[in-house]
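Anyone else keep sequences and structure tokens together like this?

Example one:
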Amino acid sequence: MAWSSFGLALLGMFIGIINLEEPLSVKGYYAVTALFLTMSSFVLQKTIRDNTEDEGSLHVHMESGEEV
């Protein structure tokens, strides 16, 4: 469900950019910034997930008495 809503939102955004009545340079700028925003959202989500997983493994090591 999450992937389908993401795909529909991305598709809708690019359909809107294509139908925009602006020069090609403006459409290109919007398309590149939209792709950059999408990429940075994935990187941010992955970084937060990795940091959370690292904190979880740190707590497990500390509770078991292992040196980190």
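And example two:
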Amino acid sequence: MQQGKAQTMAKKDQKDVHVDIIRKTHKNLRRKLANGDDFDQVWKSHCSDDRALNEYSVAMKQLATNAWSTDCDGRDRTEWCKEFSIDYYSHGKLQELLKKDKRRQTYYQKDQQSHFVRGPTPNTDSSFDAARISADVVVDKIKLLDVGSCYNPYSEMPEFETVALDLAPANQNVFKCDFLYVEIVEASNANAFLPNCKSTEHNSNVTFLPSNYFQVVVFSLLLSYIPCPHKRWLMCKKAYQVLAANGLLLIITPDSSHQNRHAALMVKWKTALENIGFQRIKYCKDRHMHFMAFRKVPNDFIWDKRKGGTDSLSMDVLNIPQDFQEMEASSVDEIENLRKSERD
């Protein structure tokens, strides 16, 4: 019994070490930006620090495969992405949305002034129509891009043809790539891209990605890693570029607060991604995370203004609660100092 208790304590201590590595990495990146350092220089320095990247990669893999898989009482991130993708492509969800698009077109023709507005959204890709896929095409294997993957949990799932990317891959199923700055090439060059992704060379580099190619892009616990709100938004814009028409961007971001504490922030995320050309089709709040699914829509998509679509088209940032923590901490300190002075 004592031995079992000791093992449990040892696992908890190891988990705390890994969590501390993750938190310190994120905090250090945000601190450097808050000090006024140039983002590109901060990011370049971070990406060239192999020791820190590998330490982070090991910590993330251990937490994801050991601690979080057994301790978390919420949804499993990988299973949620898998189930939603299959439901969307194989069980009729996409067809339902396309039928709604046709109905919305009818409503728009009758009522162009009040409830509906037609695009373009400022950042929608004009090449969308050339890459449009038919709703009645059955996808045998869903082309999935897992960004910030670490260890590629989708590699054993037969439903997916997966490309996994990370700054510091944890195994040979993941390719080394900085998604923020990777080159996007025309979809016609996808055939040149595919052989590189079948390479068995450990941690092979991916230097370019094809446009309008993937049917799903997964950002699982990725955006909170990026210390700049505008760069987070740019990563989503790049996801739009590599997605095929009607493709899915699945975003999971951590938040252990209660259901409504950051609801306004998530509404801003919805608006910011609409500015790129994404329609939010699913949102749910777990005990520890937000789960979101966005669909890549065409340049002439008709937005329903009753749901807030396109109200703030200038928004190009994605804030997370941690962006405000230093400011909040500073305010708390000021209040405490004021109380002390009043008592004195």
